[in-house]
Specification:
Elements: E1 47-48, E2 52-56, E3 63-68, E4 71-76, E5 79-83, E6 92-95, E7 104-107, E8 113-116, E9 121-124, E10 131-134, E11 136-137, E12 143-144, E13 167-170, E14 173-179, E15 192-196, E16 204-208, E17 237-244, E18 249-255, E19 267-275, E20 280-289, E21 297-303, E22 306-311, E23 327-330, E24 342-345, E25 355-357, E26 360-364, E27 375-379, E28 387-390, E29 398-403, E30 410-417, E31 421-430
Antiparallel strand pairs: 1-2, 2-31, 3-4, 4-5, 5-6, 7-8, 8-9, 9-10, 11-12, 13-14, 14-15, 15-16, 17-18, 18-19, 19-20, 21-22, 22-23, 23-24, 25-26, 26-27, 27-28, 29-30, 30-31
Length: about 425
């Protein structure tokens, strides 16, 4: 990739629709600049706002599916690629027939890469010279296999995720953990939290949600429904999984509705702990809620002992209600108590993704519901001040899977069309 310096680029534009910088204690009066008409974004060309530079991945690059440090993993045309220089060049490559169907990937500390299609998961060596398919193990250490498909059935998403951080240092050991965002016009699948504690060599289920009658195969009977038949807790899919090092605990949140099917609510926050000696998980449901709630949420980040998240509230409401939306934070012990939450930033529309790196918050907006075409909320100081931007020249897009900055300081954001269709890869670099 030919990287263009954001400082010396001669074709920069002050490219913004809206900007504001306000105190989170008062939120002030919101000042919005007039829209600026922009040419269509050119691939690889660097633009800027008050807070950050941004660019799309070049058209001749592999699809950059994830990044970590100086490494990047991508795919294109029946091949997979690994870069060791921030996706400028692709040192390692391997044939992989299902490359265009990859839905998830994560680069590990040991140099290997775990990646998955809709129904299969693999591990690749540091140079992609070896690729091995993995069989997921359930909580009883038995093989966990995807359900069999009949003619015409969609495969579903067993491994796709919304969040962009999947590895955590857990008392000196790297844990890979994520939940699948599924059942979105892609075919029914069970909702699971997956993990690996051995550098990706084995993938296991940390938590399996119950059988949701709303998301089952056509003509299936309860005897062969998907999901854990012993677990009464159901959901549609998982929005986010994160780790709080200060209490050595994991948090997960789910969606979406109360479907009045006699199986309870689908929006939950769970807290989990992992016993490394026994390789055993203990989970508890902290709170369950309907869809018009800040607990229908995503983008969990644990910073300085506090939990930050974005509200995805979009359920039915009465004429007397308002939507319970915004970016919030609280002490983990106060998660179930709304009175002890701090509203970090008020948001009028639902959101589902956010990544915090150091003091920098990057929160893409949900294009399907938001009047912004390609909205980005950005804070350089952990929510004290904010920039609100609409990169509308990029088209009607929703950002998900926000990876932390690479060695050159660029966040990676996956832009989606109509929420479930892959669009482009956007890079964003904070100023200052």
């Amino acid at each position: 990739m030919n990287r263009v310096s954001p400082v010396n680029h001669s074709r920069r534009h002050h490219s913004r629709r809206k900007f504001l910088a306000v105190s989170t204690t008062t939120f002030g009066s919101l000042l919005f600049t007039a829209p600026i008409k922009l040419r269509a974004a050119q691939l690889g060309v660097v633009e800027e706002t008050e807070h950050f530079w941004y660019r799309l991945a070049p058209a001749d690059s592999p699809w950059i599916d994830t990044q970590r440090g100086g490494r990047a993993f991508g795919y294109r045309g029946g091949k997979i690629f690994l870069s060791e220089d921030n996706a400028r060049t692709w040192t390692h490559t391997a044939d992989f027939a299902e490359a265009e169907n990859i839905q998830f990937s994560c680069l590990l500390r040991n140099g290997k890469v775990v990646f998955a299609t809709a129904r299969q998961i693999f591990i690749g060596s540091e140079d992609l010279s070896t690729i091995r398919e993995l069989t997921v193990m359930d909580r009883r250490d038995k093989d966990y296999l995807p359900h069999k498909l009949s003619d015409g059935e969609k495969p579903g998403w067993y491994f796709y995720s919304l969040d962009g951080i999947h590895t955590f240092d857990v008392q000196g050991r790297e844990i890979l953990i994520w939940g699948n965002y599924a059942n979105v016009s892609t075919g029914p699948v069970p909702a699971n939290i997956y993990y690996s504690a051995d550098g990706g060599e084995t993938i296991k289920i940390a938590y399996a949600f119950g059988q949701n009658p709303a998301f089952q195969l056509k003509n299936a009977t309860p005897d062969n429904w998907l999901g854990d038949r012993e677990n009464p807790v159901v959901c549609r899919h998982i929005h986010s999984v994160s780790y709080n090092a200060q209490e050595n605990a994991f948090y997960a949140c789910t969606g979406d509705l109360d479907r009045k099917l006699g199986v309870g609510l689908e929006c939950h926050w769970l807290r989990g702990t992992w016993d490394a000696d026994r390789d055993h998980w203990a989970w508890q449901v902290i709170v369950s809620s309907d869809a018009n709630s800040r607990f229908k949420s995503g983008g969990i980040n644990c910073v300085g002992g506090q939990i930050y998240w974005v509200a995805d509230a979009n359920g039915p409401k009465s004429e007397l209600e308002t939507y319970d939306r915004g970016i919030f934070r609280c002490d983990p012990m106060d998660l179930a108590n709304k009175l002890k939450h701090t509203l970090v930033y008020p948001v009028a529309f639902e959101m589902a993704a956010m990544t915090i790196h150091g003091n920098t918050i990057v929160a893409p907006k949900y294009g399907n519901a938001d009047p912004d075409k390609c909205g980005i909320l950005f804070s350089p100081d952990l929510g004290k001040t904010w920039g609100h931007y609409d990169l509308k020249e990029l088209g009607d897009r929703s950002g998900v899977r926000v990876n932390p900055p690479n060695e050159e300081g660029w966040f990676r954001i996956q832009l989606m069309r109509s929420w479930v269709n892959r669009g482009e890869v956007l890079f964003l670099k904070a100023k200052g």
